[in-house]
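G., the chain you wanted modeled:
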Amino acid sequence: MVDPTEPPSELLSFALQSCSTSDLGPRLGTLSFADRTPIATPHYIAVSSRGAVPHITQDTMRTSTSVRGIYAALEDFIEKAPQATPPVYNFPAPSGDSPLRRFIALQQDALLVLGPRRIPPVICPASNTHTAVSMCTSVGFHMLECEDYVESVRKLRPDVVLGLADVVYGPKPGWKRVEKMGNRTLLWLKEVVDGMNNEEAGTPRTSLFAPILAIESELQVNYLEQLQGDELRENVSGLVLYGVVSAAAIPASMHKLPRLSVSEIKSPQKLLDEIALGVDIFTIPFIGAATDAGIALHFSFPALTSSMADRTALPLGIDMWSPMHSTSLSPLQQGCACNTCTNHHRAYIQHLLSAKEMLGWVLLQIHNHSVLDAFFVAVRSSIASGSFDTDRSVFERSYEPELPAKTGQGPRVRGYQFRSSGPGEPKKNPPAYRTLDDAAEKLAEAPLPSPRVDAGEPAEKIW
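Predicted structure as tokens:
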């Protein structure tokens, strides 16, 4: 009989240092993987686009941030599969190393997590089938067969792989659809386990995180029961959660496994809600969304008592597109030790954004990750001191519930970042260059040159 309280993989270990008396509650732990930097939890891993954190290079990530793990989506690399072999599959790598890690030039001490879809995913027009998951690649929508997903795991050899889950994005699924979700997820999980155990190269160097669906536990009873059985349990090293409902459905016998949230968290308040339910690792898409919008995150945990004096909620970020920052020599956030705040001021960053210089978004991305790094350090300290619930309540009263709205034009939007709404849809990216209106009118009204007129002496200037 397998001990249900410890992760089975010798590669991955998770040590709980303190936790709530109930199965759901904030907790401290350490997630370790062989030859990787241990991650103190709760913490986050960065969301990548095609294997890189948006706006910053791998070198910058290593030297200017505290990110020690990234989430990569398979749909970023398989745009022409299965008709053509994705280049990442044939990328050379030393024996025992990950071709995917080499392909994206990820540092050796960073944890590499592979999942099927981006975070947040683009809603696909086609539904999942019994054997495949609908995906959105850079060249359009297509289906990823479960057997192809297993093959990608065996070829790419990430540190952690997320099991395929029959998740419905968008409208809430009906009862008939819900009945299929648990059965499909169970079938796919067994196929992934069988494929990983049949690896010809020997002992797999990939740990498997099993999904917990975002439906009530009563609606996935069969799946949860078999997940705890010997056939699957000895191959599962952690759990993947898709929201608050998923956390409530975790079986009691598996509550000591590490929990990774891939839900679309849009604010630090939602982040605190999931931390309060015992989630350990997060993927946080609002970091990149804020950077794209030209917003510098500006919050701290616990909230400063001075911010409660006037009883007005503080913004969670600063809109750096605003002209009011054009002459400010202040850092983005007082006391922030990131590379951006110690070397540059608001006026410079506002100028970079106005000039559409990519360095502006680079500096914002460095700062925004630093803010989240400090946030999680403070959260862990709060949990250790036993004041998390109080600090969380003060934070929610001190700050606005949502990030500031986007006011400026961010970086160019790529086709696989959104779904087209149909004919007549306006362009997501406005033209970078255009003819001045007054000059165009004068050109249209100007007479055609006569062959008798000297080209060096025009009869009339256009402007």
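Confidence is low (pLDDT under 50) at residues 1-8.

Shout if anything looks off.
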